[in-house]
Amino acid sequence: MPDLTEGIAQLTQLLKQDKLIIFAGSGMSVPSGLPTWEGFLENFIVFCEDLTKTYKKHGIDKIFTKELFVDARKNKIKYPGQVASVLKNKFKELPSRLHSNVKDEYTDWFAQSFGPFDHNPYHELIVKSKFQYILTSNYDLLFEAAAKRTGKLYSSLSFHENTALAEALYIEDPAIIHIHGKYNNVKMDNIIFTSDDYFNIIKKKYPAFSFAMHSLLTRYSTLFVGYGASDPHLEDLMEELSQYFDYQKGYKLPKNYLVLPRRKANVVKKEFKKNMGTSIILIDDYNDYNLLLTELSKV
Q1: Which of 70, 153, 195, 251 would bridge with 81, disulfide CB 3.0–4.6 Å?
Q2: Can you spell out the DSSP letters for 35-65?
Q3: Is beta strand 221-225 parallel, antiparallel or unpaired with respect to 175-178?
Q4: Helix, strand, coil in percent for the chain, rounding step 5
């Protein structure tokens, strides 16, 4: 595991060669007041509980039971993807007369969860840097806000804009790519929230986007920032790539980097990431992100 100084040196060299892109997780938006993935999952549990209270007379408490909520909270850290999938799949069991109301409330909840926030220094440092593409699993539009403020020109794309993404890659147009969608364009069955969503929507409905993503991630090295060691969306993506490419036989493939707090690192995690062509850059705390991103913005 390279330390921060060694990691900065390797990343700087890649950035100078136009061989590095960045993939930002929820940690980059936390200073703006947005939740981490774990926090967002807890908010989703609360949202489901509130629905149960609102529509109790329709028997919704027989679907979203107290036992389900208790178990969801017990397992949200260890099995976050499964918890999110189970809860979201419960919406399919609701009486048909409630579908329209619940979908509207789900859309409003997303807007309130991600809309009224402003970008922070992390976003500004990233858009000021030499990254051709900024990938993010975040639903917020804080990178777009930061780019507008700093005068940087980026296209803003989502997973359902297959052709626009292909064009951006072909003409090398800088782009902010929301691989899970944007909060202002949310539909319950067309937003990537759970592991099931990733495969049912990305892999089945938008295979061209998946193809473009694979092309991008095999052309550039990727710096993953703002992710926890067990973020389910990150694991889904990295595991999928490991199925396509053998990183252990010395092929010259793009090397990826995951910035991780030292307290969350361990030998098992190191070996797991190594099988996916990913090196972990250790930091002591999240303040080190400022140093890392500041140094990269100087390239």
Answers
A1: 195
A2: --HHHHHHHHHHHHHHHHHHTGGGTGGGTS-
A3: unpaired
A4: 55, 10, 30
Domain boundary among 80, 114, 148: 114
What average pLDDT score do residues 90-100 get? 90
Looking at the structure of the chain, the number of domains it has is 2
- Band the pLDDT of 238: cuts 50, 70, 90: low
SS (H, E, C) 131-199: CCEEEECCCCCHHHHHHHHHCCCCEEEECCCHHHHHHHHHCCCCEEEECCCCHHHCCCCCCCCCHHHHH
Q: What is the pTM of this model?
A: 0.90
pLDDT in tens, 127-161: 999 999 999 999 999 999 999 999 999 999 999 89
Q: Give the structural domain span for 253.
A: 4-32+119-297
20 and 44 within one domain: no
Give me the phi and psi of 193, to 5 degrees please. Answer: -125, -45
**Cβ–Cβ under 8 Å, residues 233 and 36:** no
Q: Are residues 177 and 243 in the same domain?
A: yes
